[in-house]
Write a structure and sequence with these properties.
This protein is mainly α. Helix content is 80%, strand content 0%.
């Protein structure tokens, strides 16, 4: 009991077991485990299904992510916020009613999303300019229902500052995805089926994982229900609670779903623009001659051109109009249809390499879920207690810890983009294409990580509509940039990451400006960003130098050749050594530059002892 009485001195009224970064640390460990499992899933998966199968997988998953976000993004946050506020004031009957109503909402939205994905899969796949993604979309449909209910239970536990069930359920979900998904994909390929069917098999593992994780969360809920304290509070009317849930959830859902919606629109536009430029401007072929054999496309174009009346415009819209006319008349095999299939296959190859880079790019951003999931209930509970000082500490520490994580990850991807892609995907992707894409995406990593936490800070302080507007503006910039840049014959797929940089850079800038204007006692930005940036830049320089030196020592000039060649084994050794040196160098720089404060560590488990060890 003495330990609990001393806790407020360290973190303004919060027990040590439920500190903000205590919860974030639990989620972070869970997410790290999930991401390690995810690496053992996605990397072999790309090996199994190849670049075109990767495009099919990502196109199906992007559709799922949008509907999943719409049905689940805002509601768990609303539940955790309302549950946290009710628990802080001892209203346990209110907590129970909030949870029951939220669960009903989740189930309703999940069923609606399932119906759209299952029965309109062909239309959704065609919208993505990838008709072979339809089996994967259908395979993911049941997962939307399960994840909806799963999110209700996760929001309930997070509202009680108990992050352990969420972390465990995420690990269970990832393990099932790994075992079932990879197993099915491998079996389907061995059975002689296409890459699109193997992608659907891999996605089935996601559905199985959500079912098993939901079973765990339900069991955990019923086992812990008897421990909930008795209370005599009279809960609000169901209509009032529903209004409160929707008031919080709808803006957050719109803000969160903007990322998924923009991704789907962007994916569709990029693939459509690739197909259009490949058809309408053969100069664009020069970009990809090292990666794509254009002989099949050239033959298909000649056959289609020969079948056309004189002076017919050779455009993608004319090609699709002709195909629609042929299908309406019952024609299922023609030069036009062969040409479109060939264009689609090439765009799947190019976008599949970009998707492989996106898989690595998404790893750092997914780690931010630990902080964003903890910001809202922690700040809400602090505000409910009218603890402005504690609220300011949490806000400042969230920004600082995010910067300490995001900057080195972004710089690392930028510096070692090609070596990392070669290390992970040399047998399945073209690293000369995917590597530069990952390096460019590394710059966007910093912006998107910081933006996500800024949005959570605004939402926790009650400014739920501002992040929506910010994301809308950023999304418009991303779509506009990619639509025009990818269409340039001299840029093509290499322009796809540019939209991410412009979109999330703009969103971050606007978010920081808004926080400075509307949130009291906000921390000074210069100390938060300057030291992590300096440490990350020095770390990046060290990683670049180590990789360059080691790769030079391990490379050799083959017989009859003139240029030095680095083997895959040599690249792996050089990359891993560069990453190891970068990690050690960054930790030393963080301590030497005092990038983290004693107050930040006080919010973490065992933070006081760590602060003494680091002499902060």
């Amino acid at each position: 009991m003495a330990h609990q009485r001393q806790a407020p001195r360290r973190c303004a009224g919060t027990s040590k077991s439920n500190t903000f970064f205590g919860g974030a640390a639990i989620l972070a460990v869970g997410i790290m485990v999930v991401k390690v499992i995810g690496m053992f899933y996605k990397i072999p998966l790309v090996w199994i299904i190849g670049d075109q199968g990767t495009a099919d997988f990502n196109n199906a998953y992007n559709i799922y992510a949008v509907l999943l976000t719409i049905s689940t993004a805002g509601l768990p946050v609303a539940v955790s916020k309302l549950v946290s506020e009710a628990s802080a004031t001892g209203k346990h009957n209110q907590v129970r009613r909030i949870f029951r109503l939220a669960l009903a909402l989740f189930l309703t939205l999940g069923v609606l999303s399932f119906l759209i994905m299952f029965f309109r899969a062909d239309w959704l796949a065609e919208m993505m300019h990838d008709t072979k993604a339809a089996p994967g979309i259908r395979a993911l449909a049941p997962a939307v229902i399960c994840v909806g209910c799963l999110s209700a239970f996760r929001g309930y536990s997070q509202g009680h500052s108990n992050m352990t069930p969420t972390a465990v359920s995420q690990i269970i979900e990832a393990l099932c995805k790994l075992v079932v998904g990879l197993g099915l994909a491998f079996w389907i390929i061995k059975a002689g089926q296409g890459e699109d069917m193997a992608a659907a098999g891999a996605i089935t593992g996601v559905t199985v994982g959500t079912i098993v994780a939901l079973a765990y969360m339900v069991l955990n809920f019923f086992m812990g229900r008897d421990q909930t304290p008795l209370s005599r509070d009279v809960p609000d009317a169901p209509r009032t609670i529903l209004q409160d849930i929707l008031r919080i959830a709808i803006p957050i859902t719109l803000s969160s779903s903007m990322v998924g919606i923009v991704t789907v629109i962007d994916s569709s536009l990029v693939q459509g623009q690739l197909q259009r430029v490949l058809l309408e401007n053969t100069d664009s072929w020069k970009l990809y001659t090292s990666f794509v054999d254009f002989s099949t496309l050239e033959q298909a174009m000649d056959s289609w051109t020969a079948s056309l009346p004189a002076n017919t415009a050779l455009t993608l819209s004319a090609l699709k109009d002709q195909i629609q006319t042929e299908l309406a008349s019952g024609t299922t095999q023609s030069a036009a249809q062969t040409l479109l299939t060939t264009l689609e296959d090439i765009s799947r190859t190019l976008y599949g390499n970009y998707s492989g880079a996106l898989n690595i790019y998404n790893l750092p951003t997914s780690l931010m879920a630990a902080i964003t999931a903890s910001v809202i209930p922690a700040v809400s509970a602090s505000l409910a207690r009218r603890d402005r000082k504690g609220t300011a500490r949490i806000t400042g520490s969230a920004l600082r810890i995010t910067a300490l994580l995001a900057f080195p990850m972004g710089v690392g991807l930028f510096v070692l983009g090609k070596p990392i892609m070669r290390l992970l995907f040399s047998a399945s992707l073209d690293v000369d294409l995917a590597g530069p894409l990952l390096s460019t995406l590394g710059l966007a990593t910093v912006f998107v990580c910081m933006m996500l936490v800024c949005n959570s800070i605004l939402q926790a302080h009650g400014f739920v509509n501002l992040p929506v507007l910010i994301m809308v503006l950023g999304g418009v910039v991303k779509i506009f940039a990619n639509y025009n840049v990818v269409a340039l014959p001299g840029v093509g797929i290499y322009g796809a990451p540019l939209g991410n940089i412009l979109c999330f850079g703009l969103c971050l800038a606007m978010g920081l400006v808004v926080i400075a204007r509307v949130i009291p006692n906000r921390p000074s930005y210069l100390p938060i960003f300057l030291k992590p940036l300096a440490a990350s830049a020095l770390m990046g320089g060290g990683a670049w130098a180590v990789y360059g030196l080691v790769s030079r020592l391990l490379s050799r000039v083959p017989e009859g050749g003139t240029e030095r060649v680095l083997s895959n084994t040599g690249n792996a050794l050089a990359t891993l050594l560069a990453i190891g040196v970068a990690v050690v160098l960054y930790v030393v720089l963080v301590v030497a530059l005092r990038c983290i404060s004693r107050d930040d560590l006080a919010l973490m488990p065992k933070g006081d002892k760590l602060a003494k060890l680091l002499r902060l």
